[in-house]
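INTERNAL AUDIT FORM
Audit reference: QA-55
Scope: verify that the stored structure record matches its stored sequence.
Auditor: D.O.
Record contents follow.
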Amino acid sequence: MDKEAPIVVATTWMTSEASVIKSLLEGYGIPCHYSFEIPQPISPLPTDGITEICIYVPAALAVEARRLLEEHRRQGNLHLVDN
């Protein structure tokens, strides 16, 4: 595995939650993006709950990103799928 490749630090089923996570991490200076695969036959329909969304950060920042997400989860601000 390439040490420089982005690493998944969280997963969710909701695009709205993925956006919140992205904003949260970027607010702490951690660049991130999320992606998901939409099954072709349903692509024009809403995707929430249909496919898992993965949130990626640079490998060098993965530990800090996970720590921040866990801190917010403990405070009850996030409800993530365990990764």
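Auditor finding: record pair retrieved intact. Residues 7-74 form a domain with the Alpha-Beta Plaits fold (CATH 3.30.70.1530).
Action required: none
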